[in-house]
Amino acid sequence: MSNEFIPFKEPEIEAMVSEAVEKFFSVMLDWPVECVGSREGQTADFDDLDAPPPPVLESDETIVVGMVGFIGALSGVLNIHLKESLALDVTSNFLGMTLEEINEEGVEVVNDALGEMGNMVGGTFKNSLCDSGYDCRMTLPSILRGRNFTIETPSGVFRRIYDFKTLDRVFSADLTIKPGE
Amino acid sequence: MQLKILTVDDSRAVRIIVKKAFKTYNVELLEAANGVEGLAAASKETPDLILLDVTMPVMDGVEMLTKLKADPGLKNIPVVMLTAEAGREMVLKIAKLGIRDYIVKPFKEDVLTEKVGRIIDLRPISDTPNKKKTLSDRCDILVVEDKPAIIEQIKNGFRNPTWQVFGVSSTGETIDFCQKTVPDLIIISLSLPDESAYTLFRLLRSNMKTKYVPVFGLVVKTDLHAQQQAQQFGFSSIITKPIDYEDLESKIAKAINLDTSERYFAFEEDYLIVHVPESSSATALNEVNNYLKPKISEAVDNGYSRVIFDVHTVKSVNMSFIKLLVDSMGICKELTLTYSLVGNSNVAEECKGFEESKDWIFYSSIEEAKSKAL
User: Fold this and answer.
1) Do A112 and B13 touch (CB under 8 A)?
2) What pLDDT is attached to residue A119?
């Protein structure tokens, strides 16, 4: 997917997403993290419903996605996809809770933590857009949870998936942007 | 009085992190999940500070802040924004409404407590009245000195085995140490190069973790200028070299509010034994004197009726020593307790030279006092 829809070069976008992810990991978790690559995120071919695009993160595990949107001069959504095992460890370190305490609290506390992670990462990214002159505001974060699902975006938008590695485990940041109102 | 902080954030995760950040401080954390709940909690509880998010459902942080500032009863509550929203225009818009600080998520817990500590008098839980530390509790003392021999000397100088002395030689090492472990007391050599002792003192006082840690200055006895300067800076106490360890221990005990009574008072069988310290310096005797009334009262409360004043280690007699014993005997008489004295021949002889003590009888050991006198 080309970036003809947005006023940034791809390396600039990658730098902004990487900075946002790295900031969260270094400040809140004190974990090392690096961007290990990026790929095009497929937009839907609505004429071929039998061949959907592959999932952002291939895994037998449940996938938890922290999603936050931004609306303004540029609009879009940043989704952070994590396997459930990594989501549990992030929650544990982020909130200072043991895995036993998280299990006692249930899935809601993981959703809260991943929602806030999405909010913080998305917020840092959105602030970079604002500081570059594209003022926008954030939406409330939400959570997607499940297995073997795909996220499709309509044509006419910029979509790119950035893969990250932390402590030998991978996760992905899936960015969609389009010009705002 | 316990301070109240209201955190208004729709994210439970953030409220958990805020709670965690303040768990070692003497504050009550109140929570609200949106602006409407936040205003209700602020009206009901009148918190000392509000931490406020921007993007929230029902009522966002900007609207809550606007309503708060329009309420004469609430407008003076300091507000710190804690939000992922940091676009210049949004920050300017919020700043115009009147806030005390702005923290952008993600945030370090230290940054949060540091900024809040600049607005309200945030005190660690350990500073609030609770069970006093005693001599058997661990006490960490950090010595900042660029001469390793002095650090070694201080390590070997303390009598109490539970006092752990750690040595560092620079400002950077001190800050690193305090980030990991907050010591009970810090001793800084005032002769560190480039007057860095004073810079370090300022840094320690501006950091929430070390704001209330007693800081002693260490300097040679003849350097009166440095002693005066340290006092003006607000050092808790000044220690002069060569170090008088009895005096230093006593000053440390006072600075960290340590209960040292077990060093001087013991309950054995039916007796309260009062051990008068060897040096009979004014500082040491004063320390005993401070515990005297409460300890003798404790003895009476617990059914003890006999007291032995053990002065056998005392090297020489002075008026402070005589006065302490005269006062002690007075308290015993008042409470109808019987008492006796245990001392060496030198003390007994010297006491004959004072009007108040010329008739005192000393036994040579506690066992003799127990068997013959009482």
Assistant:
1) yes
2) 94
Percent of chain A with pLDDT over 70: 90
Q: Which is nearest to B107 in space by CA: B80, B88, B89, B125? A: B80
CB A33 within 8 A of CB A164: yes
Contacts of B85 in chain A (CB under 8 A): 123, 127, 137-138
CA angle B68, B35, B46 (to 5 degrees): 50
User: What band does A50 get if pLDDT is binned at 50, 70 and 90?
Assistant: low
Angle CA(A51)–CA(A53)–CA(A55) in degrees, nearest 5?
A: 130
Please report, as a single letter, which amino acid is at residue A43: T
The pLDDT-based confidence of A1 (bands split at 50, 70, 90) is very low
Q: How far apart, in whole angstroms, are the C-alpha atoms of residue B169 and residue B178? A: 13
Identify from A71, A93, A108, A120 which residue to disrupt to test chain B contact, counting B C-beta atoms within 10 A and taking the largest count. A120
Average pLDDT, chain A: 88
What is the C-alpha separation between A153 and A82, in angstroms, rounded?
A: 20
Residues A86-114 pLDDT 10s: 999 999 989 988 888 888 888 899 999 99
Instruction: Pick out chain B residues at pLDDT < 70.
Output: 126-131, 373-374
Task: Name which of A27, A96, A126 is nearest B20 (Cβ-Cβ).
Answer: A96
d(CA A71, CA B35) in angstroms, rounded, equals 21
Question: How far apart are the C-alpha atoms of B239 and B218, rounded to whole Å?
Answer: 5
ipTM of the complex: 0.86
Query: Nearest Cβ partner of B84 from A94, A97, A120?
Result: A120
d(CA B184, CA B210): 9
Identify the burial level of B161 via C-beta atoms within 10 angstroms of its C-beta, where 0-12 means exposed, 13-18 middle and 19 or more buried: exposed
The encoded tokens of residue B106 equal 């993600």
Residue among B56, B105, B108 minimizing CB distance to A120: B105
Q: How far apart are CA A166 and CA A25, in angstroms?
A: 9
DSSP string, B169-207: -SHHHHHHHHHH---SEEEEETTSGGGHHHHHHHHHHHS
In 3D space, the residue among B344, B346, B369, B364 whose CA is nearest the CA of residue B272 turns out to be B369
Query: What residues in A contact B12, CB-CB < 8 Å?
Result: 109, 112
